[in-house]
Amino acid sequence: MILPADYHLHTHNSGDSEAPMEDMIKSAISRGLKEICFTEHMDMDFPITSDTPKDCFTLNTAAYKEELLKYKELYKDEITIKFGVEVGMQTHIASKNSEYINSESFDFVIASIHLIDGQDPYYPVFWEGRESSDTFKHYFEITLDNIMHFDDYCVLGHLDYLARYVPKEYKPYFWQDYSDIIDAILIHLIKKDKGLDFNTSALFKSGASTNPHPDILKRYKELGGKIITFGSDAHTPKALAGAFEKAKTIAQICGFDEYCTFEKCSPIFHKL
User: Is the pTM of this model over 0.70?
Assistant: First the structure.
């Protein structure tokens, strides 16, 4: 099976990865990929904790770009390497994110929600005293609010990302409970010619659902959405293109016969 390009990758340039860039490239080549895009984290105003010290997710863009261009040239006969970034959305930094994006020649930009009211749902302490249904509703409201205030991106990152971290003792997540606001998000994306990051991280790591859930991907298609990218969200070489075989089949079942890569933030469609 020919695999799609992996358009969600992190290396040691991101605060939560130690992966050498060259090792990620070699992994992609070994999997038979013809194109990848690195999307290092740039999360401005990320809270300082014992696990996330000051500037943990502040990207050294110059160093990252220099390294990427070196390997882009070195491996040009084996694989296409694109220059991307994943920005963390918060409404109060929307203008700063826009200024940053427009200051660089990115091929691709993922806009993601990693924080809810300044807290990271990755940590169990986030869930203390919360009710899961209210938390999910708030998360989707925050997502919609952010994309209404920020437009300098190509795809929305891992929609329903919060589902990865719901403690087992909490009420399970059913996307149908939030279908109205999810529809509003999808309709806005379509109106703005934005796409979805079809993220396989949870599928690869635990067999859980993709983000977004396949039914949300199908709904995006039903509403007129066309732009999807495949992203492993890999932070290690082993996870690169993780579960892409399954994800490709899922996307086809959801009605997609094309996926996108990007050049200077313009989509290029490929047969799936």
Answer: yes
